[in-house]
Amino acid sequence: MKRIAVIPNHIKDKDYKYTKELFEILKGKAYIVMPKSDEKSGIDAEFKDDDLYIGADAVIVLGGDGTMLQAAEPCGRQGIAVMGINLGKVGFMTEVETEYMRSACERLLADDFEIEKRMMMEIEVEEKGGKIQKFLALNDAVIAKPSAEMIEMGLYTNGEKVSEYISDGLIISTPTGSTGYSLSAGGPVADPQMELFIATPICAHMLSARPMLLSAEKVINIELFEGGDDSATVTVDGEDKCVIKKGDKVTVKRSDCVFKIIKLGRQSFYYTMMAKL
């Protein structure tokens, strides 16, 4: 039997209604493992924490795109394909609606699906003292102040200055992340199977500041300038990771990891975009 990790969103799936329905569909056909935080669900599955994804043949996420992002880093690092069941509003990555859950699971178990690979990016934060932190993102990395104070920063690719910004922050997104925060800040929509970076300033205090498309082949560097606030928060896929100060370096580059989405051909990215944006 396939080993399948099931990741529910207990806020969107109240009383685990759809998770329990999914379990009944897979019962006796797949071995189910779930996060320890969902032990209260009453579902007869195995519950794990750190080794939740180890040995998994596939992951099923019940929720919205935000829930998919929670699985992005471990699944990207381990090369595990993910199927999303949409309990959210937009669902760019969670293509399976609940009424098609049974047929989707049947096709998953029969290996009757395609894999769509999405570019991921690595973020490295090097402090002036030498400490280095590394993160993996599917959507975006944001350098900003939680209090929306003005920041002055420079953007470089392969050591060459591309632009300077006086703004509330800067978003570096992948094509997958182009329909997220970057879009809200005025960035363009990109086909999610492309490979590029989108640099989108947040509430720029300058008329010349515009979103920019940058080659995925290049290494992006960001640094804070004198004159603005002396620190900023680095947020990766919606989660605050660390605080940078002047003299620290933020480097963004394409990762060797890719995020694999199980596609059943029910709807294309453009169909979803036209229907829900």
What is this entry, summarized?
The chain has 277 residues and is an alpha/beta fold. Helices cover 16% and strands 42% of the residues.
What is this structure's SSE topology?
Blueprint: E1 2-8, H1 17-26, E2 30-35, E3 46-48, E4 58-63, H2 65-78, E5 82-86, E6 96-97, H3 101-109, E7 114-126, E8 132-137, E9 140-144, E10 151-157, E11 160-167, E12 169-173, H4 181-184, E13 196-202, E14 212-215, E15 220-224, E16 231-236, E17 239-245, E18 249-263, H5 269-276
CATH class of the largest domain: Mainly Beta
For the report, how would you describe the main beta sheet? 6 strands, parallel
- Radius of gyration, rounded? 20 Å
How many domains?
2
Polypeptide structure, described:
By secondary structure, this protein is an alpha/beta fold. The protein folds into two domains: 2-112, Rossmann fold (3-Layer(aba) Sandwich); 120-256, Probable inorganic polyphosphate/atp-NAD kinase, domain 2 (Tumour Suppressor Smad4, Sandwich), CATH 2.60.200. It is built from five helices and 18 strands. It has helices at 17-26, 65-78, 101-109, 181-184, 269-276; strands spanning 2-8, 30-35, 46-48, 58-63, 82-86, 96-97, 114-126, 132-137, 140-144, 151-157, 160-167, 169-173, 196-202, 212-215, 220-224, 231-236, 239-245, 249-263. The strands form three sheets. It has a six-stranded parallel beta sheet with strand order 3-2-1-4-5-6, sandwiched between helices. It has a six-stranded antiparallel beta sheet with strand order 8-7-18-15-10-11. It starts with a strand and ends with a helix.
